[in-house]
Amino acid sequence: MENKKNGKLFIITGPSGVGKGTVLEKFFKNNKNAVYSVSQTTRNPRPGEVHGINYFFVTKAEFEKSIKNDEFLEWARYSDNYYGTSKTQVLTALNSGYDVFLEIETNGAQKIMEKFPDCVTIFLRPPNFDELEKRLRGRNTEDEEAIQKRLHEVKKELELSKNYQYAIENDKVENALEKLQKIYNKEKA
User: Fold this and answer.
1) What φ, ψ does residue 100 adopt, rounded to 5°?
2) Which residues lie below 8 Å from residue 94, measured CB to CB, with a gap of 6+?
3) CATH code of the domain in which 65 resides
4) How many domains does the chain fold into?
5) Which one, of 170, 4, 14, lies nearest residue 102 by Cα?
6) In this predicted model, what pLDDT tens digit does every residue of 6-59 receive, in sequence order?
């Protein structure tokens, strides 16, 4: 009988615009046993985002049906949109021996921490609030009202960073990537 070791669950979270996706994209190129859990969302795709790669973009009705059918490990409403993590997708990958990275917001992260107390939790921080606001505005993907909602959430999220095992400041992508790699290597050792 084959004894395949289960993978490890990693949570990476941080404010919108901090660069989670950019850091993870580079991380996965060098870590073939680590996989990204593609979340579902009801928000509209940003320019360049691809269905099934960045997110599964679904309607509000589809998302609410999945909630009703208990298909999520966690789900949350954030900035007037739903976001959720598929139970089946994550558990299948973990049971197949892959290390699964969830890129989720703080409410969803808290729910996962309760269900998986031995998961690895990482909070990606901006160098400062002004830099984060500059990054959000630089995307040119949201109107002023949406940016203000996100900035309001940032202050609460930064306060929650103390609940994470690791904090990485994303001053430069290369520095954040190096720190993430060290954490991954340490946790896998």
Assistant:
1) -105, 130
2) 6, 7, 8, 9, 100
3) 3.40.50.300
4) 1
5) 14
6) 999 999 999 887 889 899 999 999 999 999 999 999 999 988 899 999 899 999
